[in-house]
Design brief:
Blueprint (H helix, E strand, L loop, with lengths): L4 H14 L10 E6 L2 E2 L4 E9 L10 E7 L3 H4 E7 L3 E9 L2 E9 L8 E10 L6 E10 L8 E8 L3 E12 L6 E13 L4 E8 L18 E4 L7 E9 L8 E12 L9 E10 L2 E4 L1
Parallel strand pairs: 2-10
Antiparallel strand pairs: 1-3, 3-8, 4-7, 4-9, 5-8, 6-7, 9-10, 11-12, 12-15, 13-14, 13-16, 16-17, 17-18
Amino acid sequence: MRIRPVLFVCTVLAALCTATPAYADPVEVEAVVSPAEVQPGDTFTVTETVHNVHQFSILNPTLRLFSTPTTLTEYTELVSCTGPGVASCATVDGPTGPTGYQAILAGAMSGFESQTATFTLRVKPGAQGAVHTVQGQLFGRNYAIFPANVATLTVIDRADPAVAVTATPRTGLLVPKIDVVVRVTNNGPGRMRSAEVKGGLTQGLTANAGSGCTGGAAPVCAFGELAPGASATASFSVPIGLLHIGLPYQLSATKTASSPNDPDSANNSAATTCRVLSVLLVNCG
């Protein structure tokens, strides 16, 4: 079979001429959130960059920041905004109040110019846990784009402190005692800011203060910040007295307060018992 060169060339050219190349729309706004996971009271930054993809200048340009589905100003407050061309910061006001934040540039944006602003925001103390979509917008007097999804911010408002208690007899001392160690483990998902654990003793017993714990009939142990998965211990001791020989030393620890919210109350307490047979013979566990 003979190939007809002219017809073949024409067919190829027709196919090339009718093919439509795929071009992506130019990016006009982008942003980076750091860190992307926060808790109430934390500060974070959003670095937003806008691009004028046109030849004309944009007058009175602003870099705007929003979020959805929750309005950004409902769960954050503006600390500052900075950038090479930023003149001032302000809220973006809607019909019912502020809806976002804006960095106001000092001058017009020339054709194909880019500008960057870094917003520093603080999560409000009462913010609820949620995943928010951060939106950016280039907005000027003669040109604007619709808010575009640029990043994700996760607010974590929970931390689960689990309580454990162990008791160890110390009989080879001038004053025999039982050392009590209270352990708190943060099961997450967020960072534990603080916790308070109250010790419980058999009636008539009194504790001596130790590391992180007070003494008395109801010792209180204080714990500071713990990352998810981390643990910390505090301790107190209970003297062994002759009046309680033969009686059980019932020792417990119960979490009475913590921050942020605790999603699981089932692991908030623990207990152990020691049997004092003599000042030299004590069994715990």
